[in-house]
């Protein structure tokens, strides 16, 4: 049964659609393929967890959008939240 979701194939985080306990199998579909990973810690419903290892400084991608940068190395299955994600605002102003 699915207990997480991913929206865009380039996303590197999945969203828990129910509470997930440490050690549980996280199951989601991406482009029609069912994927699984193991939760490294408890994940609150609607919170993010890493779908793959994410290196420090790498963008966190959710719903196809960069939502911040990894403040530390994050292992697949770890909770991704304010404790390991730093805000990063892109400069969207045109350069002349």
Strand segment count: 9
SS class: mainly beta
Strand order of the largest sheet: 1-2-5-8
Strand % is 35-45%
Q: What is the radius of gyration computed over CA atoms, rounded to a whole number of angstroms?
A: 14 Å
Mean pLDDT, all residues: 92
Shape: globular
Major sheet = 4 strands, antiparallel
Reading the helices and strands in chain order gives: EEEEEEEEE
- Counting H and I runs of at least 4 residues, what is the number of helices? 0
Distance between the termini: 52 Å
Detail the poorly predicted runs: none
Q: Helix content range of the residues, please? A: under 10%
Oligomer: single chain
Task: Write structural notes for this entry.
This protein has 96 residues and is an all-beta fold. The relative contact order is 0.22. The protein has a four-stranded antiparallel beta sheet, with no helix packed on it. It has no helices and nine strands.
What attributes characterize this protein structure?
4-stranded antiparallel β-sheet; 96 residues; 36% strand; 3-stranded antiparallel β-sheet; mainly beta
Q: What is this entry, summarized?
A:
It is built from no helices and nine strands. By secondary structure, it is an all-beta fold. β1 and β2 form a beta hairpin.
SSE order and pairing:
Layout lengths: L3 E2 L7 E4 L8 E6 L2 E6 L9 E3 L8 E4 L2 E6 L8 E2 L4 E2 L10
Antiparallel strand pairs: 1-2, 2-5, 3-4, 5-8, 6-7, 7-9
